[in-house]
Amino acid sequence: MAIYRVTDEPGFVLHRYDWSETSLILEVFTRHHGRVALVAKGAKRPSSSFRPILLPMQPLAVHYGGDSDIRTLKGVEWVGGHVMPTGDALLSGYYLNELLMRLLARDDPHPEVFDLYAATIQIMAGEGPELRQAALRVFELLLLRSIGLLPSLDRQTMTLAELHSQTPYCLVAEGGLRQAHEDDRTSLTGGQWQQLQQAMDHEAPYPATLRVCLELVAPLRPQLRALLNYHCGVGTLKTRQMMIDIQNL
Questions:
Q1: Phi/psi of residue 204, each to 5°?
Q2: Dihedral angle over CA of 80, 81, 82, 84, nearest 10
Q3: Domains of the chain: residue spans and CATH
Q4: Which residues of 230-240 are buried (b: 16+ CB within 10 A; e: fewer)?
Q5: DSSP per residue over 158-169, as a string?
Q6: Is the Cα torsion angle 239, 94, 114, 69 positive or negative in sign?
Q7: What CA dihedral angle connects 117, 120, 125 and 129, to 10 degrees?
Q8: How far out from the chain centre does Cα 206 lie?
Q9: What does the alpha-carbon distance between residue 150 and residue 139 come to, in Å, rounded to a whole number?
Q10: Which of 11, 70, 85, 198 is the most buried (most CB within 10 A)?
Q11: Which helix (H) or strand (E) holds 212?
């Protein structure tokens, strides 16, 4: 649907490409219009008012117009809220951006995912590594659920059989939640999966799921990583490979 003029739209810059010697193409995640492509004319000029503002992981208010696939950025303001993440937190923020770029279609609004992203970026910018890792798992779980790629976690996917509280189960890409096999490296008990489902169904799912994930980061991480790689159609996400390469230096 053509959008001729949008003003004061909450947004985050996910990615940027060179378009000409002076301009940029931006991938911007907006709250009410989803992921949109915008051309920022003259943004690379030293005198451009866009240049110091169009930074990743910073909350913005954007104004744009046009009816083509790539619209024109008319104005942008930084709305404040947190400092830029650094170090490992910055790489984690780029990881969130890559997931949104790969899993969300353009012009497909997901306001609940926008709020999820904003909350996670705040944790990336201001909290310690333990809480950041738990927040990444929350983001992965709630993102997958919001776009319909996460099965119910309170019963086995293929048989719809109820979970036994002390029996180990695995979340696998093509089979959903199933009873763990001897060669499965990581799993959670039925009780833990049920606890996660209850937290995600809570009226305040982010803080509720964050509390549960704080205790489950290690076993959740490889299972969610494999599921996300499967749906993204890659063996390893680019940001994940970058983290591995840096750790091996």
A1: -120, 80
A2: -40
A3: 5-78 (2.40.50.140), 87-247 (1.20.1440.120)
A4: eeeeeeebebb
A5: TT-PBPPTTSEE
A6: negative
A7: -140
A8: 13
A9: 12
A10: 11
A11: helix 205-213
Bridge-based pairing state of the strands 24-30 and 70-78: unpaired
Q: Are 192 and 180 in contact (CB under 8 A)?
A: no
DSSP helix/strand/coil, 35: strand
224 token code pair: 């969610």
Model confidence pTM above 0.90: yes
d(CA 64, CA 11): 11
Q: Are strands 34-40 and 188-189 parallel, antiparallel or unpaired?
A: unpaired
> Locate tokens 């650094």: which residue?
86
pLDDT per position in the chain (249 positions), as tens? 555 799 999 999 999 999 999 999 999 999 999 999 999 999 999 999 998 899 999 999 999 998 888 999 999 999 987 778 888 889 999 999 999 999 999 999 999 999 999 999 999 998 888 999 999 999 999 999 999 999 999 999 999 999 999 999 999 998 899 999 988 989 999 999 999 999 999 999 999 999 999 999 999 999 999 999 999 987 777 777 766 656 554
Q: Is 220:138 a contact under the CB 8 Å cutoff?
A: no
β-bridge pairing 5-18 and 34-40: unpaired
